């Protein structure tokens, strides 16, 4: 059972490394005069996706592409089903910001583009793979997303989401040397954590005799989604629905349009069996959110939160059973 302890240690190092990286990078950005709004949008958003990014890059370098793909698919599903559902159970969420309402269709577009890219077997008869050209296209879409989001944020100072980002952007008061130490410690923690997570995730898959993508989908994905879960729970307790939903949607866009394509550039990702269903499940959950946040009072109540959590648990159980 040593591999389980090492896997948990790896996940803890990933979380601590990501937090340290955000702490240091935020301090450095503020030291050079970057606005708290931009820090909240870029540094913090990237920091919560750093564990997924490191796990995927190391997995791609080691040829463990099933774990890399499963990590992103599982993380996105956990964000939509587990994180968002849990937050809604804690406190019903009423969405007011227009920026969030624009980001949700962008997430659906990005996920649909990804789905088309991995339908190689169905469309061409070849083995499904996310290659480097696919990665470049997704990164170009990420650039468009960042441009639209930055413009929206800079022009939408009255938007509730902008107010929440301004209020909760890190306020750092320390010397720049300490900030760089935090960045260095974060990088070391992420690297060691990524190595332990990938190596022992593979061992777990072999010992349990299940596909590596299931370990990535269920175990590693939930572990790397803990920053989003904690952030969303805190936002829900403070009744800051826009920040909570923005955290989830933004993280999923980062995972889909940044983490996954960067991994594909390092090493083309083979799509595991049933991987297409994971992407379809993401699209279905996203489509369900459309009438919730765009019709009537735009409130996601506790019953819908329970539905999302149960849908996530049911899908994960089915995937494990089929494996």
Topology, pairings included?
Elements: H1 2-31, H2 36-61, H3 65-90, E1 93-94, H4 98-117, H5 120-123, E2 129-130, H6 132-155, H7 160-168, H8 176-208, H9 212-224, H10 226-237, H11 241-266, E3 269-270, H12 275-294, E4 299-300, H13 302-322
Antiparallel strand pairs: 1-4, 2-3
What keywords describe this structure?
single chain, 323 residues, mainly alpha, A middle domain of Talin 1, two-stranded antiparallel sheet, 13 helices, 2% strand
What structural category arises from helix and sheet content?
mainly alpha
Q: Any idea how many domains?
A: 1
At the fold tier of CATH, the topology name is A middle domain of Talin 1
Largest sheet: 2 strands, antiparallel
Stretches with pLDDT under 50, minimum 5 residues? none
What's the helix count? 13
Total number of beta strands: 4
Mean pLDDT across all amino acids = 79
The CATH superfamily title: NCX, central ion-binding region
Sum up the overall morphology in one term.
globular
Order of helical and strand elements: HHHEHHEHHHHHHEHEH
Assign the CATH class: Mainly Alpha
CATH architecture: Up-down Bundle
Tell me roughly what share of residues is in helical segments. over 70%
Distance between the termini: 22 Å
Largest sheet strand order: 1-4
Strand coverage percent: under 5%
Roughly how many Å is the radius of gyration? 19 Å
């Amino acid at each position: 059972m040593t591999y389980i302890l090492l896997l948990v240690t790896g996940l803890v190092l990933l979380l601590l490394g990501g937090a340290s990286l955000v702490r240091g990078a935020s301090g450095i950005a503020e030291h050079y005069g970057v606005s708290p709004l931009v820090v909240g949008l870029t540094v913090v958003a990237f920091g919560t996706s750093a564990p997924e990014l490191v796990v995927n890059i190391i997995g791609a370098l080691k040829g463990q592409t099933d774990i890399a793909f499963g990590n992103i698919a599982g993380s996105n599903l956990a964000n939509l089903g587990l994180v968002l559902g849990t937050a809604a159970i804690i406190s019903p969420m009423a969405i007011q910001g227009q920026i969030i309402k624009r980001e949700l269709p962008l997430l659906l577009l990005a996920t649909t583009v990804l789905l088309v890219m991995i339908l190689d077997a169905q469309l061409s008869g070849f083995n499904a793979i996310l290659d480097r050209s696919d990665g470049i296209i997704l990164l170009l879409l990420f650039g468009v997303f960042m441009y639209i989001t930055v413009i929206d944020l800079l022009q939408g100072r009255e938007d509730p989401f902008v107010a929440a980002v301004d209020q909760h952007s890190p306020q750092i008061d320390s010397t720049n040397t300490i900030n760089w130490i935090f960045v260095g410690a974060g990088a070391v923690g992420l690297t060691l954590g990524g190595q332990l997570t990938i190596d022992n995730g593979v061992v777990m898959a072999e010992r349990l005799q299940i596909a590596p993508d299931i370990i990535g989908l269920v175990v590693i994905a939930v572990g790397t989604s803990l920053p989003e879960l904690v952030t969303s729970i805190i936002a829900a307790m403070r009744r800051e629905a826009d920040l909570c939903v923005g955290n989830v949607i933004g993280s999923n866009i980062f995972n889909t349009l940044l983490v996954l394509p960067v991994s594909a550039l390092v090493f083309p990702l083979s799509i595991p069996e049933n991987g297409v269903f994971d992407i379809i499940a993401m699209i279905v959950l996203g489509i369900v959110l459309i009438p919730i946040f765009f019709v009537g009072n735009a409130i996601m109540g506790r019953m819908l939160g329970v539905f999302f959590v149960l849908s996530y648990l049911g899908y994960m159980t089915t995937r494990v059973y089929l494996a």
